[in-house]
Amino acid sequence: MIQSTTSDIHNRLQWSLLSLRLGVFIVMLMWSLDKFVNPSHSAIVFEHFYGLSGSTDTIAYILGSLQIILVFAFVVGFKKKVTYGLIFLLHGASTLSSYAQYIDGFNNLLFFTAWPMWAACFTLYLMRDEDVKYVV
Question: Is the pTM of this model over 0.85?
Fold first, then answer.
């Protein structure tokens, strides 16, 4: 068995955290872009999962813009405590608001993908000081 050096482990940790950050970024970016490409979808999501009716295209565009700013700040590692924390909280709210889909799990299997992504967000938040590869 080959023993890993501390620097080798540290290097692998940095690459692992970068891969998690890029994976979370891709999903969050698509959710952000969806608010522009299909704002009516946002209105349906807000009403169905959050109980917020009356959303307009303008609201979707504003939220999408804010979300895009956040996800780009997140992917470049800007103000990690704030941006990683907000990503964790936003994704957590999304994950938990889908509770009804978990009850009928076998008809809503894709909703379960939110849990490992939320775990990735939590890991990134906890390990933010070690996530230094390609950050500002």
Answer: yes
